[in-house]
Amino acid sequence: MQLRPRHGHASDYTPSELAEMLVDPYDDSPKYTKGIIGAVCGVILLAALVNQWSRYKLTETGAKVASKRPILRLTAAVRYLATAPTPTFSRYLHFPTRGVVFLLAVFWTFVLVWSFAVTPYYRSRWNVGSPPLAIRTGMMALGVFPFILAFGAKWNLVTFVTGYSHEKLQVFHQWFSQLFFVLSLLHTFPFVMAGREVRPNKDGLNPMGLTQIGYSWHIGKVYYWTGVAMLITLTWLCYASLTPLRQRWYEMFKLLHIISAILFSAFFYLHCNALLTSWDYLYATAGLYGISVVMRFGLMLFRNGRGVPQAQIEVLPGDAVRLTIPTPKHQWKAGQHVFVNFCKTRLLESHPYTISNDANIYSHKREMVIVLKTDVKGGIGARLASLEPATTPVLLDGPYGSGADLSRHHVAVLVAGGSGASFVVSILNDLCRRSVWGELQTKHIILHWVVRNEACRAWFEDQINAAIAMAPKGMVQVHLHVTGVDAQYGLQVESKTDGSDAGEAEKRCRAKPSRPHPAWTISNQRPYLPSLLESAFELPGCVGIASCGPTSFTDDVRRAVASKQKSMALGHDVRDVELHTEEFDW
């Protein structure tokens, strides 16, 4: 092995120092970057194989294989980990499901153990070489960096190969960022500790007797000032993204997040300074992220066409607004969402909304329906409500989301809280339309919708009734649960508080709803979600569940389904039970 000391010449070192350089040598450090990239790519490959298995199960042969009892038990065990929520300690501290926590814990443990298991941590003196612990962790951070960008992009290659949409990958984007921060600190502190050594003044360049790190900073070595700048911007990126700040000032957060990310990337590029092929990894990262950006905006321009789509605004009872948007070039699956830019009201803002209708591919007049609640604080919904009955120009970015196809399940259970019904109503539309074409195995569709006020029924009543009319008689059951003023899950129907607008909103909210369709059942009490799902599990055949609502609402559904998955994994009432969820918060 050829020795290439970072400081001085080989003749400046003792035999023991030359031998020291052979242990975890500086030039071999890229192996840590490759190891991290290889480990993450291995997990992504495994997820891609699971995605292909899901597709294979849709074939006749695959369905027979998947229906075997050992396969069903194994599937239930995996789904239990993927479904079971972790305990919630506060409204601002919410961890992902146990399966995701397990994956992240294994990866963090792997990285940190690898960092500290290799010795030495330091060289005997500064000029012998940089602290090996610092170099190891720095190269590991370089390996983590590409995936932070990949998991954070709306259109990304990870989604393309695994089937997991960008909102499901956000948790990995956030926790990989935290790991990068920890590795950055482990990269920084060894330099600080080793740099306390006073630099010799044999060459007469250190008359002030500065320490090694102080001298390096004094002469302006690029590694040091860019490292400090990186750490400052990284701290902001990680901790200004915490849930309370992000939710309270989302648009400001988004703008500063983008600016900080650009500054951080520039400092990171300068900090690497082409050492140990580091720039090769950054160029590859930029290329992959560039593909994501080009694809996203290219598809957005193509789908929106030459003219900007005009959304028809309709104010609904219960303080909600319905947007109907002509979308001849858009295609989407039930349960997907789009990011909407309201050109006239909030030009620089883009908000995600679930599409509440299915894409009827046989219709010449394809329209997208979006229902959003107005905000007592005067948000975008209130601004749109003031424009009724006019139209407003919108730009649509999407659709995104993996969708939820429940057509192969004998029983479809749709559970929603408040405006989360957008997610399940689109699935209901899709299932009922496909029942006309004979394209599904579903025999029972049960919709449970939890709202605070019965006036909210008007948000989706027309769509639900139209879906019921398409389906065979008795196939669809709709249960509306009106919880009243003491809503536990935060399913609030807000009203404006100023002037005549407040009076009009109150009238809309208190207006007596029309007589419901015979398929509707209305109860004035809070439902016990596990009991509702348990009654569905008593029906014969496989069960598909779709749920959307606030975090606590979705967690209750997850617990009930996870309990069933655990029971099946242990060999009790083994069959196929699958859960699809959409979260209010990412």
Q: Helicity, in percent? A: 40-55%
Radius of gyration: 28 Å
The shape is elongated
Number of DSSP helical runs? 19
| Major beta sheet summary | 6 strands, antiparallel
The residue ranges in which pLDDT falls below 50 over 5 or more consecutive positions are 1-5, 486-512
Count of domains? 3
Distance between the termini: 49 Å
Which structural category do the helix and sheet elements fall into?
alpha/beta
Question: What topology, given as strand order, has the largest sheet?
Answer: 4-3-6-1-2-5
- Percent of residues in β-strands: 5-15%
Could you report the average pLDDT, rounded to the nearest whole number? 85
Number of strands: 12
Can you describe this structure?
It catalyses: 2 a Fe(II)-siderophore + NADP(+) + H(+) = 2 a Fe(III)-siderophore + NADPH. It is found in: Cell membrane. The structure is a single chain. By secondary structure, this protein is an alpha/beta fold. The chain folds into 3 domains: 32-219 and 274-298, no CATH class; 310-400, Beta Barrel (Elongation Factor Tu (Ef-tu), domain 3), CATH 2.40.30; 411-583, Nucleotide-binding domain of ferredoxin-NADP reductase (FNR) module (Rossmann fold). It contains 19 helices and 12 strands. The strands form 2 sheets. The chain has a 6-stranded antiparallel sheet with strand order 4-3-6-1-2-5. A 6-stranded parallel sheet has the order 10-9-8-7-11-12, with helices on both faces. Helix 2 (30-56) runs parallel beside helix 6 (132-152), helix 8 (166-194) crosses helix 10 (222-239) and helix 18 (529-537) runs parallel beside helix 19. The chain is elongated and about 95 Å long. Mean pLDDT is 85; it is low at 1-5 and 486-512.
